[in-house]
Amino acid sequence: MNNRDQLERNVDEQTYITFSCPKCGNSVEYMEDCAGSAQPCPFCGEDVIVPRSGDQGSSALPLPIETPRLILRRLQLEDFSDVLEILSDLETFRYEERPPMDETEVKLWLERVAKDKLSDTSGQLTLGIVLRDSQKLIGVAWMRYVDSHRQQASLGIQINNEFKRQGLGLEAFHGMLSFCLRDIGLHRVVATCDSRNEAAVRLFTKLRMRNEAECLRDRFIDGEWADSLWFAMTEDELPQGS
Ligand SMILES: CC(C)(COP(=O)(O)OP(=O)(O)OC[C@H]1O[C@@H](n2cnc3c(N)ncnc32)[C@H](O)[C@@H]1OP(=O)(O)O)[C@@H](O)C(=O)NCCC(=O)NCCS
How far is residue 19's CA from residue 51's CA, in Å, rounded to a whole number? Predict the structure, then answer.
């Protein structure tokens, strides 16, 4: 059998899952390898979760993420002034290699991330963290696939300085962990921070993420080499009831 015959045989032997797109209703077919992952509907282009079998219904991305005090939803261009407060603040970037953003950078960033789709090549989703009672956007959180199988993601979060130390970061990040490891069935998530960033270390530790690596002198910040810590959680480690 030549290579071409082998390739055709492999494709023929793949099992497909057929389901209705929850957004447009068209019949969609995906290879079994994609079960449980977010993929684009070929008809309407929306992110959909491929069911584990054709008997189960497919679902749209389970957004927004809701927690007792917060709603984590897709960003909109109207969020500009709230996002600017966060991303132009020196305190937000205290332990980052890059400086805060100016108005033009925030505008361009917002235009880009408001269109985020997990099923795009970027494989990224950026959400605004909104207080339920006042509707004020007080933070941003994101996830980005880090492996070619799209089963692992890197997570991050930034909270407006005025709203820190009220347990809101904890609540929002807990929502992100549940979304990734339970709702869209990822296998593993990671988060990283500067080892001097006590707030982030406390946040990840409190959520029972494992501190699984320390990289020495791997970030150049303010003219010196700084260390970073890596935290991770696999699907089986997500606390019951999350
Ligand atoms: C990290 C960050 C998201 C925490 O948000 P937050 O809303 O202030 O956090 P919470 O109020 O939920 O606090 C979580 C825990 O961290 C502790 N903590 C928060 N800030 C702290 C600080 N500056 N120093 C020490 N501990 C701190 C809290 O006391 C709490 O622990 P506890 O419940 O045992 O008391 C926020 O500081 C931030 O946006 N930092 C800049 C961006 C960043 O570093 N992101 C993380 C890496 S992607």
Answer: 8
Model confidence at 11, in pLDDT bands (50, 70, 90)? low
Structural domain including 50 reads: 3-60
Q: How far is the CA of 200 from the centre of ligand 1 (A)?
A: 5
pLDDT, tens only, 84-103: 999 999 999 999 999 999 99
* 126, 201: one domain: yes
176: Cβ below 6 Å to ligand 1?
no
Read off φ and ψ for residue 94, nearest 5 degrees: -55, -40
CB of 42 sitting under 6 A from ligand 1: no
How far apart are the CA of 168 and the centre of ligand 1, in A?
A: 9
Counting beta carbons within 10 angstroms of the beta carbon of residue 89, is it exposed (0 to 12), middle (13 to 18) or buried (19 or more)? middle
Using CA atoms, how far apart are residues 96 and 183, in angstroms rounded to an integer? Answer: 30
Q: Are residues 107 and 187 in the same domain?
A: yes
pTM here is: 0.91
Amino acid at 66: E
Supply the pLDDT for residue 122.
Answer: 87
Q: Is 167 in the pocket of ligand 1 (CB under 6 A)?
A: yes
Q: State whether 70 and 42 are in the same domain.
A: no
Q: Is residue 242 part of a domain?
A: no
Report which ligand 1 atom has the smallest distance to the Cα of 95: 44
Instruction: Say yes or no: 196 and 90 in one domain.
Output: yes
* Structural domain contains residue 20: yes
One domain for residues 136 and 23: no
- Cα 33 to ligand 1 centroid, rounded to whole Å: 38
User: Cα separation of 143 and 123, whole Å?
Assistant: 8
